[in-house]
Structures are given as C-alpha cells and as structure tokens.
Design brief:
2 copies of one chain form a homodimer. With 319 residues, chain A is an alpha/beta fold. Helices cover 38% and strands 18% of the residues of chain A. The first copy, chain A, has helices spanning 17-28, 44-48, 66-75, 92-97, 99-120, 153-167, 192-201, 221-233, 254-264, 293-298, 306-316; strands at residues 7-12, 31-37, 55-59, 82-85, 124-130, 140-141, 174-180, 182-184, 206-207, 215-216, 218-220, 240-244, 252-253, 272-273, 289-290. Chains A and B meet through helix 5 and helix 6 of A and helix 5 and helix 6 of B.
C-alpha cells in the first residue's frame, strides 16, 4: 500500500453493502482502508468491487477474544485516524430465533472492536447502530428517546454495543453513533430487496412476510454515506454524538414498494402473497418514524425521501 | 423442602447483601427460595444468615453457557412464580479496570438467566439494574431518560442486560426492572460502607477516593426491599415496567457520611484523607438525583431520605 500522504482507517463488515461502498468512498478520498470481514454472507462479490489499491483485507471473526491480538500484531505499527464498525449479524429474523448469533456477531464483535481501538490507541470510533434499538414507538423518534426497549435480539445487541462504547469514552475520545433506517441499494446482501428480485428472476411466487402494511423509512446507501461522511468531518464539543441518519418521513409500505417494483420493472406474471399478521416476524418493528432534525441542521443539502430511495434502488437492480 | 402451599422463586446473587435479605423476606412470606451464587466475595457469612428451611442453594457461575442446562436439569420439574436476578459484579471500580469482569459477571449472567427462564417457562423476571446506566446527568433522572450513555463498564453491562431482557418479552411476559441507587445496610460486602468500618476497626488511616464532595442518593436495604415487594404484587398493563427505586432527594455527600460516622460512633483517633479529584475513580458518577415520582405513586408510604438510610446503617454497624 502507498502510505505517502494517506490516512489510514479500519472498516469492519467491509464485505457488506454499506461496508464495501464506504471502503470505495474512503479510498477515493485518499485513505488507505484496512477491511475486516468474516464472509458469512458469501459476499466475496462485494469484496471484489472494492478498489485493489490502498485496500488490505483481513478475514477475521471479531467475536473471538483471541483475534484482538492476532489483528493487533499485524497492524500495530500503523497509525489510524478512525475505526468504522459495521460488522454485525444482518439476518435479523435468524437472530431473533437464535440469540447466540446476535450475542456473537452483533455484540461481541463490538466489544472486541473497542478492545482493538484501545490497544491501537485509535481515538475516533464510528459505530453503525440501528433504528431497531428503539423498539415499538409512537411518535417521531428523537436521538434522546427513552427508555430504550428493543423487541429483537439484534436491537438489544446494538444497544449493548452503544452502551459499552459509551463507557469506553475515557480511552476513545471521539465517538459517533449512527442509527440507521432500512438501508438499500443494488448490492443488498439480504432482506426484502434481496429476496424479491431473486424470486422474480426465478419466476417464483413471492411470499411476503406480514400483511404488507409495515411502513418504514428507507435510505439508499449512496445518500446514507454522503450524510455520514459529512457528519464525520465536523468537530464536536461532546465526546459522544448520536445521529438518526434517515429521512424524516413516515416511511413507505411494503405494498407500495411492491407496486413500484411492478410498475418500474414492468412485471407481469409474478404472484405476490401476503400474510394476515402485522409484523413480518417476531421482533420486527412494523412501523416507526425518525425525527431527523439533528442531521438536517448539520447537512444543509436535501435528504431524499423513502420513496426516492426505493425508486432509485429498484431502477438500479438488474432483473 | 416443604412444597405444600408454597410458591417457588429463584434468586441469583443470593449470597449478596440484597440477595440474602430478599431470600429471608420471601421465605417469611411463604415462598420456597432456590438461590444461586458463586461466592466471589467470600460471602459465606451472608449465606449462613438465610433461613435453613425452604431454601436450596446452588453454587453456579451464571456467565457460562453450560450451566444453563446443568441448573435446568436439577430443577426442571418445579414451577416457578418468578426469577429475581441480582447476580452481577459488584466491585465497580475493579470492573472499570477490567471490562471482562463486567462482561461475564454483569452481562453474561443476565443473558444466561434469560435463557434459564425461557427453558423453564418462567413468566416473571425481576431485574436489579442500577443508576449507573444513566451516566452523567444534570437534572433529576426519570425512568424515560435518554440517551442512555453510561460511563462505567458496570453501567454498560446493566444497560446491555436491560436491553436483552426487553427483547425477550415474547417469552417472558412480565418484566420488572428496578434501577437502584447506592444500597446500604449492616451487611454490605464491598464499597465505602464496608471499607470504612474495617479501617476504623484496624485503626488505619482512611483514604477516601475523591474529594468527598460526591453526592449520591442512598437507600437502606430494608426500605428498598419493602418498596420492591410492594411493586412486585401490583398487576401491570405493560409487559415491561421500569422503576427508579430510591429517595427523591439530591443525596448525601461523602464528607457528610464521614461526619455522621464520627459523631454517631464517637470516633476520635481515625484520620481521614481526601484526594483532589471530583470522581472516586474512572467511571464513578460523582453526582446524580433520582426522580422517584413513579414509585411514590405506587407505594403510598413515606420513602426515607438518603440521610435517614445512612444514619440507620451507621447505627446498625458494629465497630
């Protein structure tokens, strides 16, 4: 890697959709990227999309204590500007059936990430948290919302990660917590926007989880990263800063998304089946809305609506 | 044990001050108590104070997955009314120096407690959380306070425990979370009220951590358990109910407590030394105040002040 005039960052979960896009953006912005992943989603494809220059890849399970030292010994001579922690279990439904998956992949990966930063004396930590921490809420959720009562193991382990990170503030001086909505893009590795195109391609019947009235905010990965990189560059007075990074609208329903798929992709023969229940699965938050006034104040540009993100994504997906 | 006309409960951390007192109260109230502890604080003494009848003791490290099944197989035929989870690391200062202690003893013990309840189909979970979850706050803290940003590993792992418990609501229908202030009594096993009498007895110089101006709410274990057992009997509409269980005053300073020790115990020759720093240790919350209006509404009786609890405790301590 070319170390001249370049800054170094670590990205965990680098083979995911958000991680691989973030890596490319940071490489374009003159950073050397050290990426960690464990390829549980067979996401070698996304890894291949990351620029070859100024990128080093480490295949590492961050939920194991021993890997803290193994990784440390490989990169201990390098000074890092920041640590971007995106690694987590991303199959929320599976994690709701087996909490050990969330314990390991969502919480312990954060716990040992903090340990890595402490050993390397990395002073800036960017954590990708989730709207799932809030559980079921009524009004537009502010970052100061309490009490925090998640309904999924995934949400719980994101809360646990935020809390442990908060207690590490004496070692890590600058902590940014991004609470994300449903993030989408053509490279999604799991979930609704991954399953539907696959089923349409195979001419399968599409079984929708839930009654289709679930209504959630969506954001395209391009918009998300544009906002986050803007937030990253600001100097803050406080040690820890939390941001709901999403549109401020009340979201878009599953039914509406399917109709957009049908009209934009001119789908004719695919059959969509719905269930008679409100939530897609146990632990699914069927409806929520972000109050995003904090990011609106910081990022002076227009934040696209959920529908704009969905339309952009559908257009980008190749059937 | 006599199972006729008795109800069964499990108490973890039963050999601690709160646990052993709770066990005796529940036994007096006609319960069979199944107590779990790991005796890390050499607290055999408190175990001996628990009534012999209607009490079964299990020496078990709850931070280990294998012990879920070991315990389950011993008591699987019994129906339990509730699970009282008090086990945690209680040396907060030590846990701030080594987060693995808090990970295991404060969080994983909660994680596997939830697993035990799910296996045994226990429908009521009483969790002893802490004011430490709130971190540094300015005003009187309500249960709805947010964001939750603890400054100690102990606080972080209590947050993690609350969050995981919250996500278990589909299996455990009735969850009570008690957020405690500094709880004291003649049987404390660690901390300020344990160290000071020991040092006075040995005629040691007493080195106070911090400048003595730390000001926190205190509650005597007798008062605490009276309130908690009252809250326990109420029927709630919601799945999860959280209570700040403490006095609503702004606490009592360390200096004031020492003066009360000196005057009530007629101490003459002991020298007290203070440090020049605000916090006792890294992670110590030097000042906080509870908003306790929620328990005031439920418990119609008078809630003693911090000073009343401190005076009662000092009077009960034998020097």
């Amino acid at each position: 890697m070319n170390h001249i005039n370049k800054k170094n960052v670590i990205i965990t979960g680098v083979a995911g959709m958000i991680g691989s896009n973030l890596a490319n953006r940071l490489i374009t912005n003159n950073y050397n990227v050290y990426g960690i992943d464990y390829l549980e989603f067979n996401s070698q494809n996304l890894l291949k999309k990351i620029a070859k220059h100024n990128f080093s890849y480490f295949n590492l399970d961050l939920s194991l204590e021993k890997n803290v030292n193994i990784f440390y010994n490989k990169i201990k001579k390098i000074h890092f500007e920041s640590y971007w922690h995106l690694a987590a279990n991303s199959d929320i439904q599976k994690g709701s059936e087996n909490s050990n998956i969330e314990l390991r992949n969502t919480f312990l990966s954060s716990y040992y990430s903090v340990k890595i930063c402490e050993k390397l004396n990395i002073q800036k930590f960017c954590f990708f948290s989730s709207s799932a921490i809030y559980g079921e809420t009524r009004n537009k959720i502010k970052e100061t919302h309490g009490p925090i009562l998640p309904i999924s193991n995934y949400g719980a382990m994101k809360v646990a990660s935020e809390a442990f990170l908060s207690s590490a503030r004496f070692q890590i001086k600058d902590i940014l917590i991004f609470r994300l909505p449903n993030v989408i893009g053509p490279d999604v590795t799991h979930g609704f926007f991954y399953d539907i195109p696959n089923k349409i391609r195979r001419n399968d019947i599409v079984q929708i989880l839930g009654n289709g009235l679930q209504k959630k905010p969506f954001m395209h990965v391009d918009h998300l990263l544009k906002i986050i990189l803007k937030i990253y560059k600001i100097k803050y007075l406080k040690n820890i800063n939390i941001f709901n990074v999403g549109p401020g609208d009340s979201g878009i329903t599953v039914k509406k998304i399917i109709n957009l798929f049908i009209s934009l992709k001119k789908i004719k023969n695919t059959k969509f089946l719905f269930q008679h229940k409100k939530n897609g699965w146990q632990g699914d938050v069927a409806k929520y809305k972000f109050n995003n006034s904090k990011i609106l104040k910081l990022c002076k540009f227009n934040i696209p609506s959920s529908e704009e993100s969905v339309v952009k994504t559908i257009k980008e997906i190749k059937l």
